[in-house]
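dude i think i finally got it to work??
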Amino acid sequence: MNMNLEQLRSFVTVHQMGHFTRAAAHLHLAQPSLSRQISTLESDLGTALFHRVRGNVTLTAAGEALLPLATRMLADADTVRFEMQELAGLRRGRVRLGATPTLCISLVAEVLTSFHDTYPAIELHLSERGSLGLLDELVNGTLDLALVTTSEDAPTPTASLRMLPILSEELVVIASIGNDVLKGVEVLTLTELAKLPQITFQENYELRATTTQAFRAAGLVPNIVLEGAEMDAVLRCVERGLGVAVVPAMVMVDRPGLRSVRLNTPRFTRSISLAHRNDVPLTRAAQAMQDLIIETANVLSSANSGTAGLIHVPSRN
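look at this
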């Protein structure tokens, strides 16, 4: 049986109009084309569907039986079409985004707020982990996009992933506005930093590994007053004057209670990249999320241009 939706729509319209000529005009078809569709449908079903009497048509018993089925099939098809249009128009869908803890309290918070305002019906799922864990989730198919950080000497990730660099930022030293420890200071050396009371992160933070290796390589022992804190705790303790901390420049966005200075000798930088799988096309919703992330990153880089811990969009050839 080769019955199709076009034939069913013609059948229902002929019944509604009670006339082939009027039905053809309503469907914007030539009457011979409409007649062929009905004849083909009747041939496929092996029975007549209409009584044809002097130009008027009425349903046969077979036509009466087919009518509710055809009406329901057409309604279901219209429902599917509408739902697909809603999905294409970003009125439905889902985005699974992963990001590191640092980016979750800065760039991601900005992005998710804007995205939800624009596409309130899209389901949002956020995974907060370290970069290596996020890349594993991407490979396993549990994330659509991931915002990850890499240092200059980081290994290249698996070829199944596409990495799109969107920002480059420095690690900066922060202190409370009310703490005079950085007052009048524009740049710190690692030796000067080692002497200051310092708050450090948990061992699994990549930032902790970066600073620990730098101190060890320079033969320095930092003055740690609090060890093993999460990002939120580090920022709160710094705001209360407990000590200084080395953090990505990104976290200084909307932190009026903190001041930052740049590190020199060595200068720490890292790249923020947006990753997704090469072998799976982005959905419309995920593509919209990627576009918004890039746009927000550009806005943040412009807003922070010229400040300590300059955030900038790297060139992409």
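The mean pLDDT is 87.
im so relieved honestly
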